[in-house]
Structures are given as structure tokens and as C-alpha cells.
Amino acid sequence: MDARTLSLPISTLNYKQPTTVQVGTPVSDVIDIMQVEGFGCIIVVDSEQRLVGILTDRDLLVNVCGKKLDPENVNVEDIMSTNPESLRASDPIAFALNLMHLGHFRHVPLCIWDDQQQEFPIGLISTRDILDHVAIFIENQEGGV
Amino acid sequence: MLYDSAIDEELTHMDEDAAASKKVLEVEKIQVPLRHLMRSCITIDIAASTQDAIDLLIEHNIGAASVIEDGVLRGIFGERDVLRKILNKQVGDLTQIPVTQFMKVDPQTAKPDDMLDTAVLYMARGGFRHIPIIDEHKHPIGMVSIRDVISYLVEYFPQEVLTLPPIPIRDALKAREGA
Fold this sequence. Notes:
The complex is a heterodimer of chains A (145) and B (179).
Chain A: H1 3-6, E1 20-22, H2 27-37, E2 41-45, E3 51-56, H3 57-66, H4 76-79, E4 81-82, H5 93-103, E5 107-113, E6 119-126, H6 127-142
Parallel strand pairs in A: 1-2
Antiparallel strand pairs in A: 2-3, 3-4, 5-6
Chain B: H1 2-21, H2 27-30, E1 43-45, H3 50-59, E2 64-69, E3 72-78, H4 79-86, E4 104-105, H5 116-126, E5 130-134, E6 140-145, H6 146-156, H7 158-161
Parallel strand pairs in B: 1-2
Antiparallel strand pairs in B: 2-3, 3-4, 5-6
């Protein structure tokens, strides 16, 4: 693993397809989806599939367990983080590391932009994807590859 | 496309910069002792309620806490346990349910003299976010998380990561607004 690796596009990592919910979805439904899919994060879009927010298990902890909000009576947009930082799959890995480190983000949406600069999510890169990349490097080194 | 050529141009510049730096993360560099990376350990007593544990996670802004009995690590409880085992589950009054009901018992641990590469492999193979660091008496003395691994990479490649512009200069023709 070298500096050149960090200039490779994020698309070289095994980033995930995004699981999305629309604005207006009750938090209880979002929890169901996250539990079934095993995701700690979900992307929130509007009716046009544009990125509007991101919701993590941390948001659920703080708002549902901490503030005692009823997940059946609260919608996802009430507790999500709005206008999250996003990147393109073609952006270098270094930018994902930069955002994750400085912004303390565990997940960063990957988007495409249309002519009006509207963002449409196409993926999700997480700190775990970076970790797995490092782990493969370590295993290859230890295996003498 | 003009857009694609702008990306290619930026990647070319980054390649040139990277080639100029020639910096390589050698496996020996990942063999830094965890004692140099671990964060302070937040603990909660095994007799505590689940609500107390949740409040601790929120108060200290941490993803997981070590559950101890007489100072000895017995489990780990984190935000992922909350999502998987508590939310939408009608589990009852969390102030009356001990944290032991939802914690992960006997979690994967590491020693302070274990190396970072060991922790990385534990996290990758086991799907763990956090690895408690314990002493010879199984007393938790620290915690290492995936975030610490990210921080280590950033500190190892500061020129490549920390000197980046806040937004990729991927398209000079269409400046994005800051998000």
C-alpha cells in the first residue's frame, strides 16, 4: 500500500450499493430495513431520488433511546443529518479518507450529479471498506504475496 | 466528455504527486503497538441498566463501552447492539433491564503490546468496530476502533490526505456548493 493507492478511484474498493428510503418514511420502518439489511446507515432521498440526508445507527441511539422519540411517530427527515458530504466513485480514495478523518464520518454517500448539480446516490463508502482494503494488504504482505 | 477529461487530469496530477512522494506503507509500519493508538476506556458496571449504558454512550460520544465486573472485562455494549437487539423489539423498560441482556459477551480483545495489524485483521475478519485492550488481569485499559485505523492512515500519509482541497477539483467548470 503506497501513496499511489490513495490516488486510485473509490470505485476500486468494494463500496456498497445504497439502501435508500424516501422522506416521509417513519423511523420505525427505517429501523426495520436497517435490521433486515444489517446496515448501520441508510440514505434518504426525495421523491425524485435526490440525496437529502443520511441516517446512522448513532442518530437512532441519540434520538430514539436518548431523547425518547417514538419511532412510529417520527419521520426519517426529523432525525437525519441533512446535506451530507458526498463524493463521486471516480474521486480518489484519499478524499474519502480526508472526509472520514476530518468530518468524523463513518459513511460517505457516492453520487452522480446532473446538469443542475443535483445529487443522486449510487453508492456508499464506509470506514469498514477502507479497513477491509488495509486488511487485504496486510494479509498479502504476511502471505508473502 | 469534458467532465471525464477533468477527472482524468486531476487523477494524473495526483498520480504524479504520489509518484513524486514514493511513500510506501510498509507492513512494519502497521506493526505499531496498540498502546500508542488506543483511546481511553469507558466502562460500565455489569449491574448497570441498559438505559444507563445507552446514556453513557451518548454522554461520552462513543460507539461502544466495556462492561466490567470487579474491574474485569465481561462484555462490550455498543450502538450496534442497540440497533440490532433493542429498537422496534418491544423489550420493555430499559431502566429495568440489565445491560448484560444485550451486551456482547467475551468480545475479541487485544493486548497493549499487540500490533495494529493484528487489530485490523480482528476487525476485518470478525466484523468488529471496536477492540477492547486489556491487561494481563483482563482489566480493560483502552479501546481501538476502526476510526483509529483511519486516523493512523491519515497521519501516515498527511501529504496525500490532509493537504487535499475540501472538495475534489474534479470539475472546475461547475463548482459545487460546500455541503
